[in-house]
Amino acid sequence: MELSVSLSLSVPSHSRSLPSLFFCRRKKHNALLIFRNPNSTSRNCNSSTKLFNWLQKNVITALNSIQTGDGGFVLEDVPHLTDFLPDLPAYPNPLQKSTAYAIVKQNFVSTEDVVAKKIVVQKNSPRGVHFRRAGPQEKVYFESDEVRACIVTCGGLCPGINTVIREIVCGLNYMYGVEDILGIEGGYKGFYSKNTTTLTPKVVNDIHKRGGTFLRTSRGGHDTKKIVDSIQDRGINQVYIIGGDGTQKGAAAIFKEVEKRGLKVAVAGIPKTIDNDIAVIDKSFGFDTAVEEAQRAINAAHVEVESVENGVGIVKLMGRYSGFIAMFATLASRDVDCCLIPESPFYLEGQDGLFEFIEKRLKENGHIVIVLAEGAGQEHVARIMHAVGEKDASGNRLLLDVGLWLSQEIKDHFTKERKMAINLKYIDPTYMIRAIPSNASDNIYCTLLAHSAVHGAMAGYTGFTVGPVNSRHAYIPIARVTETQNTVKLTDRMWARLLASTNQPSFLNYNKVMQEKAEKETTNLIDSTRTSV
Ligand SMILES: Nc1ncnc2c1ncn2[C@@H]1O[C@H](COP(=O)(O)OP(=O)(O)OP(=O)(O)O)[C@@H](O)[C@H]1O
Ligand SMILES: O=P(O)(O)OC[C@H]1O[C@](O)(CO)[C@@H](O)[C@@H]1O
Ligand SMILES: [Mg+2]
């Protein structure tokens, strides 16, 4: 029989008589749990703690909640409250009595249901990694009147945050009869520095029609201890956390602390990012809305440059480390001649460089539209501006304005060096594409995310992120979505589609060109020093 291994930080404080390190089998999931008992009076407590710490450091990431099965089947499961509170009672799901849901053929998802991470397989390939399927379960671990939930939003804005807030509130209330829901204001720091607001279906009724976040947001200020103290003091037992990769790391830290303190608190993460840079999930909410809104800016650029001689339009879109918005906006528009993203470094001068391409398009068509992701070409701007690498309150690198830099470089090159008059229009709609309400399909997506999170928390799952994997909503261990960032793969078919549609240079010679440029600059510097001496 195959067993998986999982580590749990502590056991309830009354268990002084238990050994300092002990093992037990979690039958339901066929897993071996290793517990550390910090209250143990046993004499070998010290060495056990050392062993536990070593296991935690070296083994936990690899083995936490992993179950294996026949044919190479792997389930990367999420934690459950009963992992560290084994005696929790379960109750029948109140959805059984709901008139709306009673007619659903398969009202509950089975605890055996899983979602495959990889959907394209071959006859003999192993079954591979799976995640727990999201949805309502027959048993819940909270009674309706026992729940005190809270919702917090952190990081940058994204279309659809208000829909997620609305649907968590309405989902908890309409499906599970929960009436005690609190809003934490202004991001993580709101837990310990602000009063809460009361959220009811009536209060949130119209918020999905507005952009932004009804609860407001912030960067920085994550203090795990203070946050969990506040959760404990306020008697909160379900925490819904909406935010990007940084926020999800914060959610993981809150979960760990909750687990360490042995609290009956379900921690659910709902991934949010306009950049679509969250790993594992198909797509992040608000992304489609942002791509759609970007079309308006691209269209404006096209109209402008088409109406003048030698028109050069530059549209800067969001995308710190991932160029998904720029790539999808380009593919959708068909008016874009060149798309520049952080994953594909570009160069200006020489053969197959950007200047050569612009000149070619101006000669052919009389105009050119360039879409630029804000994170692209940062190395060029940094070199010119001697940047000091400023960071925001969360520690994210602050980007330099690549749009302004590129506009200036293009103007200088064509007017000074090529003696060509150009008409350059720089459009910067960065915040406009994320400060709008979500479109219809994102609204539905947000509803499913919120409801999946509610079902998961009610079923006692915790320390999870929810999201669609191959179109099926799943509960994903938080570490899975924070360990890597989703970026555009230049070797994937989608980037090839873009190159084929724009016919832009691939900049594959980037390293060679940049090395030659650096060598040339060094030689020039040496020559000019010699001359001046
Ligand atoms: N490693 C971490 N551990 C704990 N908390 C973190 C960590 N990284 C970030 N946070 C907290 O998460 C919150 C949001 O982080 P950040 O500003 O990076 O935005 P984000 O969630 O990544 O969203 P986005 O990048 O889409 O705007 C902040 O309050 C920050 O303090
Ligand atoms: O909201 P801020 O702090 O200006 O940060 C902007 C950044 O946030 C993001 O929108 C991600 O949320 C990035 O695309 C962008 O670089
Ligand atoms: Mg982030």
UniProtKB/TrEMBL annotation:
Mg(2+) binds at D245. Keywords: Allosteric enzyme, ATP-binding, Cytoplasm, Glycolysis, Kinase, Magnesium, Metal-binding, Nucleotide-binding, Transferase. Allosterically activated by AMP. GO terms for molecular function: 6-phosphofructokinase activity; ATP binding; metal ion binding. Substrate binds at T273, I274, D275, M318, G319, R320, E374, Y431, M432, I433, R434. ATP binds at G156, R219, G220, G244, D245, G246, T247. The record marks G246 as: Important for substrate specificity. One of its GO terms (biological process) is fructose 6-phosphate metabolic process. SUPFAM superfamilies: Phosphofructokinase (SSF53784). It is found in: Cytoplasm. Its main location: cytoplasm. Its EC number is 2.7.1.11. It is an enzyme of class 2 (transferase). It catalyses: beta-D-fructose 6-phosphate + ATP = beta-D-fructose 1,6-bisphosphate + ADP + H(+). Belongs to the phosphofructokinase type A (PFKA) family. PPi-dependent PFK group II subfamily. Atypical ATP-dependent clade 'X' sub-subfamily. This is ATP-dependent 6-phosphofructokinase. It comes from Nelumbo nucifera (Sacred lotus). The lineage of its organism: Eukaryota, Viridiplantae, Streptophyta, Embryophyta, Tracheophyta.
